[in-house]
Amino acid sequence: MVATATAYCYTGTDAATESAATTYWNLMSTDAADTTDSVYIAARLTAPTGANHTYSYERVGRIKFTDTYNAIENCLFWYTSLMTGTGVTITAGVSTSGVTPVNTDSAIATASAPISEGTALDIQNGTMESSPDYTDYVYLQADLISTVGPGDLTTSSWKVQYDES
Amino acid sequence: MQFFTKVNGKEFNGCELISFNKVAIYSGFKPEFIKVIVGVNVYVMDYVLGELRVNGSIIHRVDKETLSILRPICFNRHTYDSNGVNELIFTGLGYQYTLQGRNVKCFIVLNSDDKTFEVVTE
Fold first, then answer.
1. Residues of chain A with pLDDT under 70
2. pLDDT tens for each residue of B14-64
3. I want to staple A141 with a disulfide (CB 3.0 to 4.6 A). Which of A90, A104, A106, B65 is the partner?
């Protein structure tokens, strides 16, 4: 008995549109999934001027567990490497339900994205004892200020940890 | 490594019956204890007394009130990452209980070398 974990993105009203399976949780100027890791090139973020901010659309993701298991517990999310650069901040948060992604200052992704297991987001979706089931929603957002440099940001890697029984 | 469990008064040599990879073994019954022998070290999770003992010394104990809500746990801890890689980090054997509204786990960890253990409370 082994559970299968698969990552998805969610877009649209109430983040109700599930993408094809994808681990590319790119932060873009459009509310679209980037399952081919290529859409971000056209959907790039523009540096703001003055004291303004540019926000990416919130990237909404969660993990689906399928196949056979008794329980999934202790689901955590964090970045093992996080894009860095002048003028860029990546924020993160958790929602128990789908909320329409916005490209204004997120009300969900309000904290700096965690970069260690010790500060990981708790994405356990209550009692997960039937298959299939999902974690809570992870909300991510890029916050740019005018000092941001041009070009691609460093690729970031995230990790989800869970206990299966 | 030797692995024993006792269920309904009958002791089994778990090496024949139970694999660490078959984490469903505790679904239908509650073992009285689980004993793992690794080299010269003997780890016992005693679900009747609510104790974790290592070489006879009590490393962790729950009070009598907690015994009724003590439940055996056997789980595989995995990670799944943005490269799509799913990795088994370790297998844990132990018990879980509720303390002041918080779930507490005490377990022994089978490390990836398949030989060594450590005791964890979280």
1. 1
2. 544 344 444 335 455 678 888 888 888 898 989 889 999 999 999 999 988
3. A106
* Best B19, B25, B29, B78 residue to mutate vs chain A (most A CBs within 10 Å): B78
ipTM confidence: 0.90
What is the per-residue burial (b if ≥16 Cβ within 10 Å, else e) of A82-121?
A: bbeeeebbbbbbbbeebbebbbeebebbeeebbbeeeebb
C-alpha B48/C-alpha B12 separation (Å) is 17
Surface-to-core class of residue B67, CB atoms within 10 Å of its CB (0-12 exposed, 13-18 middle, 19+ buried): middle
Q: Which residues of chain A lie closer than 8 angstroms to B74, CB-CB? A: 165
Provide the whole-model pTM: 0.86
Q: Give the distance from residue A8's alpha carbon to the nearest chain B alpha carbon, in angstroms.
A: 11
pLDDT in tens, A71-105: 899 999 999 999 878 899 999 999 999 999 999 99
Q: Of the candidates A128, A111, A129, A108, which has an alpha carbon nearest to the alpha carbon of residue A120?
A: A111
Distance, CA of A70 to CA of A155 (rounded, Å):
35
Residue type, B39: G
B104 in contact with A, Cβ within 8 Å: no
Closest residue in chain A to residue B84, using alpha carbons only: A23
Report the distance separating Cα B85 and Cα B43, nearest Å: 32
A157 Cβ under 8 Å from any chain B Cβ: yes
Rama region for B71: left / alpha / beta (φ>0; ψ in -120 to 50; rest): beta
Yes or no, beta carbons of B78 and A23 under 8 Å apart: no
